[in-house]
Amino acid sequence: MSYNFEPQNPFRAEKSPGKTSVDTAESKGLRIEQVFSTPGVHPFEQIEWERRSAKITGDDGQVIFQQDDIEVPVSWSQLAAKVVASKYFYGDLETGQREHSVKQLVHRVCKTIADRGKKDGYFATEQDAEAFYNELTWLCVNQYGRLIRRCGSMWAFTMFMA
């Protein structure tokens, strides 16, 4: 369902899923209730999206960074779009192998965190792991907290370079 959202990954082939501790008979992990996100609906489907350009210029007007056709929530400011595209989208602009959507960024970070929690047995069931992913995703795309800023670059490195 929604936890299985799989955006196009232009960087490498998918890794095989590791073993998980979720749903074992002795599992006493966390139970997660969906408060912000709507059960059965992916958080990305709960908001409106649009395409924009992110362009940063210096005081002299020279372009420092530019990425066209990025996908961001309509509610995000242009400054937020520029910061996310320039600092947290993973990949190389020159080769075209670069994230182009906030969906890719948020999914990458939130899925990594949820998968790690699942692998380490933090959740009581598979459904609790999915609810955690959905809640975390909803909070990120609606700009609550600083998760992407704190984790975005680190998870890009560990996921794609390890």
Features:
two-stranded antiparallel ribbon; disordered C terminus; alpha+beta; single chain; 162 residues
Topology:
Blueprint: E1 49-57, E2 63-73, H1 78-87, E3 91-92, E4 97-98, H2 102-119, H3 126-141, H4 147-161
Antiparallel strand pairs: 1-2, 3-4
Helix pairs in contact: 2-3, 2-4
Number of helical stretches of at least 4 residues: 4
Name the strands of the widest sheet in spatial order. 1-2
Low-pLDDT parts are 152-162
The number of strands is: 4
> Cα-atom Rg, whole angstroms?
17 Å
Query: What is the overall shape?
Result: elongated
Structural class: alpha+beta
| Strand residue percentage | 5-15%
**How much helix, percentage-wise, in residues?**
25-40%
User: What's the number of structural domains?
Assistant: 1
What does this molecule look like?
The protein has 162 residues and is an alpha+beta fold. The protein contains 4 helices and 4 strands. Strands 1-2 form a two-stranded antiparallel sheet. Strands 3-4 form a two-stranded antiparallel sheet. A hairpin with a 4-residue loop joins strand 3 and strand 4. The protein is elongated and about 60 Å long.
